[in-house]
Amino acid sequence: KNEVEQSPQNLTAQEGEFITINCSYSVGISALHWLQQHPGGGIVSLFMLSSGKKKHGRLIATINIQEKHSSLHITASHPRDSAVYICAVLHVPNYGGSQGNLIFGKGTKLSVKP
Amino acid sequence: DTEVTQTPKHLVMGMTNKKSLKCEQHMGHRAMYWYKQKAKKPPELMFVYSYEKLSINESVPSRFSPECPNSSLLNLHLHALQPEDSALYLCASSRGIFYGYTFGSGTRLTVV
């Protein structure tokens, strides 16, 4: 079982639809990232969460630490939102050290049709 | 400056060539990372530098050699690569474990 599971793997939506992408994880974390990657491109960090909810424009991210679950919502989706959305958790190993490690989910490929 | 800058954006190299990838940030981040990403796969951690010292090396072949000359700069030296090393190489930086990562736009490497 992967330490970070995302669902769905692929998502097709019509422009204007409300979109939800889910992420569940099984390790102890200090924070969770939602990342966006366009085809062939680099990665853009959308949010970093350690509790509660964050909002930026049409994007909303929530996290429930007790349930080890996070969701990314996109309101009024647009074709330019088409990308791969990746959940990554910042895992701090038990042995300590000064750095954690990002564990990535496999990503959700979103296509928004006009 | 809130960016991680990677150069070059694209690189084609032969299996006998020596080349270097460069990553630069001026945000005062003391941790810098190299990731390798194959198509349709999540990034895989290669190296972590913390305060200019190599702190994590994820069993990467010696044909990849990282270097951190100063706190703003991270290089990845490439020598005698194989075609299967063709991938997107991503650099990232962070202030520390409780802070977010900033990713570069990557170098698309093709080994012929």
Give your account of this protein's structure.
The complex is a heterodimer of chains A (114) and B (112). Chain A has 114 residues and is an all-beta fold. Helices cover 0% and strands 60% of the residues of chain A. Chain A is built from no helices and eleven strands. In chain A, strands 2, 4, 5, 9, 10 and 11 form a six-stranded mixed beta sheet that branches. In chain A, strands 1-3-8-7-6 form a five-stranded antiparallel beta sheet, with no helix packed on it. In chain A, strand 6 (52-56) and strand 7 (59-64) form a beta hairpin. Chain B is mostly beta strands. Chain B has strands at 4-7, 10-13, 18-25, 31-37, 44-50, 53-57, 64-70, 73-79, 87-94, 101-103, 107-111. In chain B, a hairpin with a 2-residue loop joins strand 5 and strand 6 (53-57). The A-B interface holds A 30-31, 33, 35, 40-45, 48, 50, 86, 88, 90, 92, 97-102, 104-107 and B 6, 31, 41-43, 45, 48, 50-51, 55-56, 88, 90, 92, 96-106, 108.
The total count of helices of chain A amounts to 0
Low-confidence runs of chain A: none
DSSP summary: helix tally of chain B: 0
What gap, in angstroms, lies between the N and C termini of chain A? Answer: 36 Å
User: Taking all residues together, what is the mean pLDDT of chain B?
Assistant: 92
Uncertain parts of chain B: none
- In which range does the helix fraction of chain B lie? under 10%
Report mean pLDDT of chain A, rounded to a whole number.
91
Strand count of chain B: 11
SS strand fraction of chain A: over 45%
- Major beta sheet of chain A, specifics? 6 strands, mixed
Order of helices and strands of chain B: EEEEEEEEEEE
Write down the oligomeric state.
Answer: heterodimer
Name the features.
heterodimer; A: 114 residues; mainly beta; six-stranded mixed sheet; five-stranded antiparallel sheet; globular; B: 112 residues; seven-stranded mixed sheet; four-stranded antiparallel sheet
Ordered list of secondary-structure elements with their pairings:
The complex is a heterodimer of chains A (114) and B (112).
Chain A: E1 4-7, E2 10-14, E3 19-25, E4 29-37, E5 43-49, E6 52-56, E7 59-64, E8 69-74, E9 83-91, E10 101-104, E11 108-113
Parallel strand pairs in A: 2-11
Antiparallel strand pairs in A: 1-3, 3-8, 4-5, 4-9, 6-7, 7-8, 9-10, 9-11
Chain B: E1 4-7, E2 10-13, E3 18-25, E4 31-37, E5 44-50, E6 53-57, E7 64-70, E8 73-79, E9 87-94, E10 101-103, E11 107-111
Parallel strand pairs in B: 2-11
Antiparallel strand pairs in B: 1-3, 3-8, 4-5, 4-9, 5-6, 7-8, 9-10, 9-11
